[in-house]
UniProtKB/TrEMBL annotation:
<dbReference type="Pfam" id="PF10706">
    <property type="entry name" value="Aminoglyc_resit"/>
</dbReference>
<protein>
    <recommendedName>
        <fullName>Lincomycin resistance protein LmrB</fullName>
    </recommendedName>
</protein>
<dbReference type="InterPro" id="IPR019646">
    <property type="entry name" value="Aminoglyc_AdlTrfase"/>
</dbReference>
């Protein structure tokens, strides 16, 4: 997944007024304002009211659903890479509320959304503290350890 592709995806989200948050490795790189590693995918949390429209737009660009773990995420893949779409319901305060596979509920607080830069373009990302929190609860991969080391530089 290239920075240029991420910027195009985020531009669509902005143009369509979607509340979103870039997470994962691209979120970390946006916090430091530069690409620190290659990325297989883009993790993006979006307002569930825009999920169908966003997925239709991605499909029009050649993406196809390759994994469907709703309500947690839907993975779409193309020659450009993968987009992991995480739908969240917005509560009255603007917090994202995401359902888990086994009835869990994950809260993505609006105050933990900050602005980062990808390829010089402003994007909404999780704060450094939230990015660390999102890396808990699963076995660490080499890319996760890299991202945590990058977060330690902030």
């Amino acid at each position: 997944m290239t920075a240029a592709e991420v910027v195009q995806i985020v531009a669509w989200l902005h143009a369509n007024g979607v509340v979103y948050q870039v997470n994962g490795g691209w979120g970390v790189d946006a916090l430091v304002g530069r690409q620190t590693r290659s990325h297989q995918d883009l993790d993006v949390f979006i307002d569930e009211d825009h999920e169908a429209e966003f997925m239709a737009w991605l499909t029009s660009r050649g993406y196809r659903v390759t994994e469907d773990w709703r309500p947690v995420r839907v993975q779409l893949s193309s020659h450009s890479g993968q987009v992991d779409v995480h739908a969240m319901r917005l509560d009255p305060a603007g917090n994202g509320v995401q359902q888990g596979l086994d009835g869990e509920v994950y809260l993505h607080p609006s105050e933990q959304r900050v602005t980062g830069l990808i390829d010089g373009q402003a994007v909404v990302v999780a704060s450094a503290g939230r990015a660390r929190e999102l890396r808990r609860g699963y076995p660490m991969r080499a890319v996760d350890l890299h991202d945590l080391a990058v977060l330690d530089e902030l």
